[in-house]
Amino acid sequence: VRTAPLGALEVPGTPYSVRVLQEGYSHPEDEDGSFLADCSVTLIRGGPVTALVDTGGPWGCRRLLAQLEAAGTPPESVTHVLCTHGHSDHVGNLNLFPRAWVLVGFDLSRPEDDEGGRFVPVDLARGVPYAPHPGYVEVLPTPGHVRAHVSVAVKGTALGTVVAAGDLFEREGDQGVWGALSEDPPEQERSRRRVLEVADVVVPGHGAPFRVFRE
């Protein structure tokens, strides 16, 4: 497998296009091990599903609203918010989407008007994907960084299958980096291999999107 920078933040397609609203980053800041970070936020739209993959941290609320406005996608038009896992830099703005189905890791809920949310059973924990739009938009269980970690595959774009992978991949060329952040490195290595077998483009959690070439 060979990778290369995508060099763009949007991949067109029919019915779905994929647009990276925010390119994630992670910068070491201090000797105490702290670092400055926020995650990639990815918009999937064009078909009956309008999905946001991860929401960034709560410190970026105004920025996210501005990014959605610039994309012509108001929060109320988002049908699904698909958070790859529950870390604070990935789920910090869920409250902006009260009308959306919400997935955080392996847990799915749907809105019930003023009654709150209704938990909806899925089989992600048993390795079974969840498909908001079968054949086009599919949530894949990709454990390792944390046990309940998922990635979102969008099929049929102009470049093939785009996978918004959360922290399964820190960034392109992250060997020697991702393992230190992983709850289960061997499991994450297996998940990474599975994604690289199907992805033509990967949106990593804290870096620019990149192409995947299988030779």
Task: Give the SSE string.
Answer: EEEEEEEHEHEEEEEEEHEE
The portion of residues forming beta strands comes to 25-35%
- Total domain units: 1
**CATH fold name:** Metallo-beta-lactamase, Chain A
| Count of individual beta strands | 17
Side by side, the strands of the main sheet go: 2-3-6-7-8-9-10-11
Quote the distance from N terminus to C terminus.
6 Å
Poorly predicted tracts of residues: none
Q: In the CATH hierarchy, what is the superfamily?
A: Ribonuclease Z/Hydroxyacylglutathione hydrolase-like
What general form does the structure show?
Answer: globular
Based on the structure given, which CATH architecture is correct?
4-Layer Sandwich
Which CATH class?
A: Alpha Beta
Please state the structural category. mainly beta
Number of helices: 3
Give the fraction of residues assigned to helices: 10-25%
| Biggest beta sheet summary | 8 strands, mixed
Average pLDDT confidence is 96
Rg result: 16 Å
Family: Belongs to the metallo-beta-lactamase superfamily. Glyoxalase II family.
InterPro entries: MBLAC1 (IPR039344), Metallo-B-lactamas (IPR001279), RibonucZ/Hydroxyglut_hydro (IPR036866)
Domain Metallo-beta-lactamase: 38-206
Main location: cytoplasm
